[in-house]
Amino acid sequence: MHQVRYHQRSLYIPNNPDQTSYFICYGDSGGPSNIGENVLYSGIFIPVSFPGDSVIKIRKKDILDKQNIFKKKKYLKSGFENFDAKTTIRGNDSLSAQKIAKSRKVLENILKAFDLDDSLTAGLNPVNANFVPRLTQVANLEI
Question: Which of 12, 18, 37, 103 has the most CB within a 10 Å radius?
């Protein structure tokens, strides 16, 4: 399905008839009011059973994270030392972050994805994907 608005473009493709995951693309060139927002993204999104208002973003640590001299930034923790040493987790729901981390397979797949490209992110409700009907009903995990 392809939707077009004046400045917005969106596309989602279910991977199968059961719609267990989607490839989603979104772009909004609406102007300067969008600076700093997620105006262009694409990725694989999976419907999951989590609170819809939970937001978690996971990315690979960079040199600035490792040299955080003043320790001003507070990050969520997964509870797995190896994963926490390689990633930063930000968000508004530490309980959901720990629930995601209960699956070692999910954590391993996130680290494998980060090995492919340092700029990738993973998250729970990282962007607004409400143009996909099934994702308006549940939270979404993007990897």
Answer: 12
Which helix (DSSP H) or strand (DSSP E) does residue 111 occupy? helix 104-116
User: Where are the strands (E) in the chain, listed by range?
Assistant: 2-4, 8-14, 22-28, 40-48, 56-60, 87-91, 121-124, 139-142
| pLDDT tens digits, one per residue of 45-81 | 888 877 777 888 889 988 777 676 666 667 788 878 8
For residue 90 the two structure tokens come to 């930000």
Count of beta carbons in the 10 Å neighbourhood of residue 10: 18
CA–CA dist 63, 61 (Å, integer): 7
Q: Cβ-count burial of 95 within 10 angstroms (0-12 exposed, 13-18 middle, 19+ buried)? A: exposed
Tell me the whole-structure pTM to 2 decimals. Answer: 0.75
**Residues 99-107: contacts with CB within 8 Å, 24+ apart?**
99/50, 100/56, 100/124, 100/141, 104/80, 107/78, 107/80, 107/83
Residue 100: closest CA among 119, 123, 68 = 123
DSSP 8-class letter at 120: -
Distance of alpha carbon 17 from alpha carbon 39, whole angstroms: 29
Which tokens belong to 142?
């993007």
